[in-house]
Design brief:
heterodimer; A: alpha+beta; Nuclear Transport Factor 2, Chain: A; Immunoglobulin-like; 2 domains; 6-stranded antiparallel beta sheet; 4-stranded antiparallel beta sheet; 30% helix; B: Nuclear Transport Factor 2, Chain: A; 6 helices; 4 strands
Chain lengths: 321, 171
């Protein structure tokens, strides 16, 4: 019986010698890899909550490595120019639309802005704030060199702005400062026999939208668009049917046949997908007699009642982010 | 022909057995993970490296805020323990140049703010990029009046675990 068993084993080994050899080799390789991994101590990276290229608004959204590298280079270059007072080079890095909308193509406006924003700052910290398709909005905090002073005789302080990086179709990246993100031509007109309202464009900043509007009085009477005497004089309507009033109190009176270009600013975050749909001037009054608002209330009411016409103007302005 | 086949098979058996033996031997020799051994107490450098390694391992388990408070505690601990040079070496280079260009000037300043034993209260912490600002309230634990703690900012930059620079508001 024992001999029979030995013969069977020998027969098996002879028949499968190659397979057994290969199996042992594989087992040995796996064994050594396992041994190596067991003894390998991977370097532990420093864990912090600071992730400069991950969006604050959506922690699942990060800036692609290629873009984030370029962003860091551009910021270093831009802040470097600002700190050394090389205004022309810093201004030259901005997108044309940013120069036009934020600084009216005037480098002096940019200089004043830069001095106010960066001043004597020595350090800056970047944080990806919000991403939307090829638009990457970073928050930049400028501060003194706190490590060099230890905040001696100083309080913890920084200034901040949103700097926007837009990847173009050709791969270039455009940079805009001062919270400016984008602008859009609207060119929608609404008019009647008294008033022409021409909404030219929307300038989109991170937390506000500004509308450039040309108002033309076609009558020989005074037209009052806003003087805080009526409800809902000017408002922006959003997709959700929410409305926004201008961020600053606006008095808007047109003399007979006068034309005015104004900028109306409304609070609206760029990354809020609730888009604006229309701009409404809700209580336009065509007045034969207008004495302003610094007169007796009875006079104001009497003049409103005697208005030649009273109407509202709604201009569709639906834009796409 | 049959002999050659037998020979080849023999070689194959021997190679297989050798591989098995070598693998088992390697497993016995290398299988046990080496635990860091406590160094000889007289070898100061080895002792410091051992302690530093343990601190690093401990820091790796801490949250950011805990680590910053640990660094501040380490800095103030050096001062309380009279190890001024160690505390001085933790200062950020530009801060040293601005306020304490020499170790002596640092040593002269310390008694005006820190006592032999201080109560430290961490009031707040903020992160600005990779810089941390901490707000501390320091009371002299022996002679201090409880109502009059000294307020101090400490600024920390952490390069890696147990690798940091520090500065503070000179009061």
């Amino acid at each position: 019986m024992w001999t029979d068993f030995r013969l069977k084993v020998r027969h098996f080994l002879r028949k499968n010698a190659k397979i057994i050899f290969i199996a042992v080799c594989i087992w040995s390789v796996v064994f050594f890899i396992n041994l190596f991994l067991k003894n390998y101590e991977a370097p532990v990276d420093l864990q912090t909550t600071y992730e400069p290229h991950t969006s604050v608004m959506d922690s699942g959204s990060s800036v692609p490595k290629k873009v984030s590298n370029r962003v860091e280079e551009m910021l270093e270059e831009y802040v470097g120019y600002c700190l050394e007072g090389n205004v022309e080079s810093a201004y030259g890095m901005l997108s044309d639309t940013c120069k036009e909308c934020s600084f009216e193509n005037n480098i002096d406006n940019f200089t004043a802005y830069m001095i106010n924003k960066i001043g004597s700052a020595k350090r800056y910290a970047i944080q990806d704030y919000s991403n939307n398709k090829n638009t990457y909005i970073y928050q930049i905090k400028y501060s003194e060199d706190m490590l060099a002073t230890g905040l001696t005789n100083a309080t913890y302080h920084y200034t901040e702005e949103k700097i926007v990086f837009k990847k173009q179709k050709n791969g270039d990246i455009e940079m805009s400062v001062g919270n400016f993100v984008d602008y859009e031509d609207i060119k929608n007109i609404s008019e009647n026999e008294y008033l022409k309202v021409d909404v030219r464009r929307a300038e989109k900043y991170y937390s506000v939208e500004r509308y450039v509007v040309v108002l033309t009085n076609r009558s020989d009477n005074t037209i009052v668009i806003a003087d805080q005497q009526e409800e809902s004089e000017i408002f922006l309507e959003l997709e959700s049917r929410d409305t926004r009033v201008p961020t600053t109190i606006t008095n808007l009176v047109l003399e007979p046949n006068q034309s005015k270009t104004i900028k109306l600013e409304f609070a609206k975050f760029y990354d809020n997908e609730n888009e604006a749909t229309s701009l409404t001037f809700g209580s336009v009054r065509v007045m034969e007699q207008y004495s302003g608002t610094e007169v007796d209330e009875n006079i104001i009411q009497s003049e409103i009642q005697n208005a030649v016409a009273k109407f509202s103007v709604n201009v569709p302005i639906k834009t796409k982010n | 022909m049959a002999n050659q086949k037998k020979d080849n098979q023999k070689k194959l058996y021997i190679a297989t057995i050798l591989i098995i033996l070598l693998t088992i031997l390697a497993g016995i020799l290398l299988g046990k993970k080496k635990e860091p051994q406590a160094p000889d107490a007289e070898d100061k450098e080895a002792v410091e490296a051992y302690i530093s390694n343990n601190i690093t391992l401990s820091l790796q388990t801490m949250e950011e805020r805990e680590r910053m408070e640990y660094y501040v505690g380490m800095f103030l601990g050096y001062i309380e323990g009279g190890e001024y040079e160690k505390a001085y070496n933790l200062l950020y280079e530009d801060f040293k140049q601005n306020y304490f260009p020499t170790l002596e000037s640092f040593e002269q300043y310390l008694p005006t703010v820190f006592s032999e034993m201080s109560d430290i209260e961490h009031e707040n912490i903020e992160r600005n990029g990779d810089i941390y600002v901490l707000w501390l309230s320091i009371t002299d634990a022996v002679n201090g009046k409880p109502g009059e703690p000294k307020k101090m900012n400490i600024v920390v930059q952490e390069n890696d675990y147990n690798d940091f620079v520090i500065s503070f508001s000179v009061i």
